[in-house]
Write a structure and sequence with these properties.
Strand order of the largest sheet: 1-6-5-2-4-3
Structural class: alpha/beta
Largest sheet: 6 strands, parallel
Shape: elongated
Radius of gyration: 19 Å
Number of strands: 6
Strand content: 5-15%
Number of helices: 10
Helix content: 40-55%
Length: 238
């Protein structure tokens, strides 16, 4: 995987830092008492989710990651035997990217929900830029082209990452795909990707809500709080 740093805009930076503010008193209370109430867990996770959303470009008319994507495509598409598959978590992001690519003159196809994929599979093989959201799970049409994957919001969860790559590879034998990860600089996203895999997955799975409304307890809660405290203290030094 190739990490590709992308700077936040000043407006994004302000929103990112504002979202982080509620976490400081929660972490301070935990460091004093080693206790975290369910309400504080909920507030902390909400703050981390807001920071993550900013990194992914939510609420931004011109996300810098889309600027980075537009900058990468000309070089990647220089070779006629290459196609680029761009993944995002949200269909809205894929559609927003599609509008930017269309305005810049790039032929592309957007795959959002599964029904949309089934309707567009027939004519999609000619497109060398494919935009996909996690709302769909259908495999992408096979093409005799080298594929490069770009992740607008790189998933920390290895299972989610694998599901994306399987949509590209289908039932073909496992092979290495070039993957470019667009990562917001000096942000929660960048700090997460600098963590060892186990710690990254613990925080990411909690932020992504895979545990539903269940609250962490005991040693796992202590691990989560310690990792988050280190993450936010590191960000505060930037």
């Amino acid at each position: 995987d190739v990490p590709w740093p992308v700077a936040l805009t000043p407006e994004q930076r302000a929103r990112h830092d504002e979202a982080a503010a509620p976490a400081a008193p929660i972490l301070a209370r935990w460091q004093r008492s080693a206790y975290v109430s369910d309400a504080d867990q909920r507030r902390l996770v909400a703050a981390l989710r807001q920071m993550q959303d900013v990194c992914h470009g939510a609420g931004t008319e011109a996300p810098p990651k889309l600027d980075a994507l537009l900058g990468l495509l000309p070089e990647l598409l220089e070779r006629p035997d290459t196609r680029v598959v761009v993944f995002s978590a949200r269909t809205q992001t894929a559609l927003q990217a599609g509008r930017r690519l269309g305005a810049a003159g790039f032929d592309h196809v957007v795959f959002g929900a599964s029904d949309a994929i089934r309707q567009r599979l027939q004519g999609s093989a000619a497109y060398r830029v494919v935009l996909c959201s996690d709302a769909a799970s259908d495999p992408l049409p096979a093409q005799p082209l080298k594929t490069v994957v770009i992740q607008l919001d790189p998933p920390c969860d290895p299972q989610r990452r694998q599901r994306r790559l399987q949509r590209v590879q289908g039932d073909a034998p496992a092979r290495n795909l070039p993957v470019i990860q667009l990562i917001a600089q000096d942000s929660l996203e960048a700090a997460l990707w600098a963590l060892p895999a186990e710690a990254r997955e613990l925080v990411a799975s909690t932020i992504d809500g895979q545990r539903g409304e269940a609250f962490l307890q005991g040693e796992r809660l202590a691990q989560f709080m310690a990792v988050v405290a280190a993450l936010l203290q590191g960000l505060a030094r930037h």
